[in-house]
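Anyone else keep sequences and structure tokens together like this?

Example one:
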Amino acid sequence: MFPDAVEVQTLVRSKGLFSFYEDGHQECCRIRKVRPLRRALKGLRAWITGQRKDQSPGTRAHIPIVQVDPSFEGLDGGAGSLIKWNPVANVEGKDIWNFLRTMNVPVNALHSQGYVSIGCEPCTRPVLPGQHEREGRWWEDAKAKECGLHKGNIRDGDSTKVGVNGNTNGVATSVNGTPDIFDTQHIINLSRPGIGNLLKLENRQEPWLVVLYAPWCQFCQGMEASYVELAEKLSGSGVKVAKFRADGDQKPFAQQELQLGSFPTILFFPKHASRPIKYPSEKRDVDSLLGFISALR
């Protein structure tokens, strides 16, 4: 699998080769790793990983052997359509290496040079004796130890950055220790008065797509990459893409005024209509959402 060449060229030309040092690796990982994997998984019903609990105690200590994938969609689309197997979740690293040596399995030559956990070249370094293997990944940031492929491992209350370049102060915001999501310059962060004004408009100048979300919701987290990609594709198209955090004190309002039933709820506010139209499907991939918007525009 390869990343989209135009996306890579645009990123490098606009931000240079090393922008990931500035944004917590989010955009680079999303373009070069997460989106290609998503394309591959869309044709499958299950996938197998090599994750272990002792590999990254901060994010992988609770991974099960088998689970419904919280971040990606499978062949049938929608939440719950992809199974994720982690068969060595409970196996310790030393036992993996004992097996490899016993069975004379060929391994990457970098392992003998101290690269215990191998990732992208600029984001990986050898570890020192006594250091944990994950210390060699994203070494300039002690907290950022998941790139997005296993983002579902980040539990509620984890302080790991999820994204930057938001619409407020350029940094991902956090409420009660839960990192915010959908943070990109292409997605407008609506306040309660903001979405209230959007509801009152009967003759909007342009249509809006708004996701009602809670940052702790695994299904919201699972659609984040798709929604961000959608916002990027719609940039300059005349459709505004936004988010409204609808949990906590905002939940009663969202239930009464915004048709909130569960998280996430996606609403389309047409250009010349007073009430929003609720997205009826659990398929939250880019193509499905684009089809919904096209049909209503």
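And example two:
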Amino acid sequence: MTAFTLETPAGGIHVARWRPAGTPPAGSPIVLLHDSLGCIALWRDFPALLAEASGREVIAYDRVGYGESAPCPGPQPATFVTDEALETFATLRESLALERFSLLGHSVGGSMAIEAAGQHADGCEALITVAAQAYLEPRTLAGIREAEAAFAEPGAMRRLERYHGDKAEWVLRSWVDNWHSEAFRDWHLDDALPRVRCPTLAIHGEHDEFGSLAQPRRIASRTPGPAEPNLLPCGHVPHRECPEVLADIVARFLSRP
């Protein structure tokens, strides 16, 4: 794995790249987009597993405000899902000369991947969403409130501080406050999904605590590719709960003619 800082108009972002051992990468790179509390470190061993399983280079980055990237100078706007595709991801693509690529996003990173696949349809060869949200539903809001209460327990915020440092409070509030804001009440990806032109695989845990199975079914039914989602016997974080299985599923999907 190699890592570096890439300057963007919003600030420096931390970027990491993995390549399969002992052989040149085959096929376009896979770009990972993390979840609402995530960062490169919280992908854990999954990027390396995916690089080996797929034979491709895997690229991940910490969004501005997260992980080892620069702090965000203010509140995260309600348009942050669309903004990521149009701004930071666009800068990453141009800077790394990613003419062709595949996208894999987890949770809200999956929502961002949908936006990016549509906005960058000229280069996106495949889209994989994992536990992604396509619209706002009560289950999502309830899960966020439960997590917020858990982080209020003594010492719990240290888990976020381990990965986000002094940005941890901003990370938590951005998640909780945006999703519960009036501006986000009617949020959905109904306009973004039809713009996706590449093969798409929607993956979801059967026991996902933040989204019902209606989420991946909406994604699968409105994008090219399998009409039904790939369901895994896990919760919201397959790359932590069953990383080898997830890497194999993704690799087989990307290897299809």
